[in-house]
Design brief:
The protein is of the alpha/beta class. It is 49% helix and 10% strand. A six-stranded parallel beta sheet has the order 1-8-5-4-2-3, with helices on both faces. Strands 6-7 form a two-stranded antiparallel sheet.
């Protein structure tokens, strides 16, 4: 087996480490930066606090990033960076903020609009402003990946853009920033982590370093997610979930995600289901499906996590989803035949090809039928 491992992002992890931001900006040679964030952090005063602690190094703020960031928001960030001659970017937020900031940090050095690259295959320029990513959710691990997921509503596309230039220069992971994440979002983001860990382990592009990380990340989720959901101020559970998210990011960044993520994109695009919950909707199905079709890797993974077989792992995930109030099926959406057909079609996303077992249109149709009947 031949493989290559690369991870260019410097990582600082721990409670209170956000205080190191100014020092790290100076170490990167930054003079005039922009903070990309979402409105909530502006309202809660965190943005003003961070700006104050950074001694005027981050005078500009773009706070209009929405969940599932759009090409328009990315272009607006890029324009602000370009017009104000910014020399570095701080992304303070969840995956949406970090994804938007990572792409904008590249496009601001060009005259290109992000829609020119989204799902078009056009090569992405490599030059970019230095990026410091400060995650506030324990979910996407966008702080250590080369991916930015953007949406173009005009074309009804939500797709990942990938470029080596999107890797942040620094991931500053302070678990305390996740303490304010409400229970439902804690569950959604936590299941995103579990899907990253599980899918990267069985991905056709799996490799030894990443699979070790996958096991560590999934164990942390199974042991700590419910505690973080039920007791959001439990610093230990929050720290372990932040670690799980980061480690799962290191695990899936190269092998990539597979079937559950492929299906999550249309579930989010068409039905508005948040990313993590959308991934969680099909993960136990694909665990059983892959196991039943002879994928030994999912059995090994389940054993490594302490389960006797893959079905037991899938059952435990379903139990957790139910206890945390996640949607267990699609009945509430009353899908028309056309919507159902569109969902099946759009789930045939390129990530599906990374699944260790072939998933046909018929397989998808069967899976979704069980979820709507
Ligand atoms: P998010 O960034 O969309 O945030 C969801 C909501 O939570 C927002 O309203 C946000 O303001 C709020 N929020 C964030 N941090 C908070 C905090 N500490 N306290 C209270 N509220 C907070 O959610 P996410 O799950 O982190 O990111 C999802 C996005 O990331 C999706 O677009 C998904 O496709 C993408 N994604 C990217 C990668 C990658 O590798 N780049 C991987 C997986 C998913």
């Amino acid at each position: 087996m031949n493989w290559e491992y690369v991870q260019p992002v410097r990582i600082i992890f721990g409670a209170g480490e956000i205080k190191k931001l100014a020092v790290e900006i100076r170490a990167l040679g930054g003079h005039k930066g922009i903070m990309i964030t979402s409105k909530g952090f502006l309202n809660r005063g965190l943005v003003a606090q961070v700006q104050h602690d950074c001694d005027g190094l981050v005078p500009l703020v773009y706070s209009q990033v929405s969940p599932n960031p759009t090409v328009g928001e990315c272009d607006a960030c890029a324009t602000m960076m370009r017009n104000n001659h910014c020399d570095f970017v701080v992304a303070l937020g969840g995956g949406s903020v970090m994804d938007c900031a990572k792409a904008a940090a590249t496009f601001c050095l060009t005259e290109n609009r992000s829609t020119e690259f989204l799902a078009t295959g056009k090569p992405i320029p490599q030059r970019h402003l230095p990026i410091i990513a400060v995650p506030t959710t324990a979910g996407t691990a966008s702080e250590v990946t080369s991916v930015s997921v953007l949406s173009d509503h005009a074309r009804q596309v939500k797709a990942p853009l990938s470029s080596f230039g999107f890797y942040p220069d620094l991931a500053l992971v302070d678990p305390v920033l996740t303490h304010t994440v409400p229970p439902y979002l804690t569950a959604c983001t936590g299941f995103d982590v579990l899907c990253h860990a599980t899918e990267s382990y069985w991905s056709k592009h799996h490799q030894p370093i990443c699979e070790t990380l996958s096991v560590r990340a999934a164990k942390l989720v199974m042991e700590n997610l419910e505690q973080a959901y039920n007791h959001g101020d439990d610093a230990v559970a929050r720290e372990r979930m932040a670690e799980a998210s980061l480690v799962a990011g290191l695990a899936f960044s190269l092998p990539k995600t597979t079937s559950s993520h492929a299906c999550s994109y249309p579930l989010t695009n068409s039905l508005g289901i948040p990313h993590g919950e959308a991934c969680a909707m099909t993960i136990s199905h694909f665990i059983r499906f892959n196991a039943e079709h002879g994928c030994q890797r999912i059995e090994h993974f389940a054993h490594a996590l302490g389960y006797t077989h893959a079905h037991e792992y899938a059952d435990e995930i379903d139990g957790m989803r139910e206890r945390m109030g996640m949607q267990m099926d699609l009945k509430a959406y009353h899908l028309t035949q056309q919507q159902f057909n569109d969902l099946v079609k759009a789930s045939q996303h390129p990530n599906l090809l990374n699944n260790p077992v072939e998933v046909t249109e018929c397989d998808l149709r069967e899976m979704y039928l069980k979820m709507v009947e």
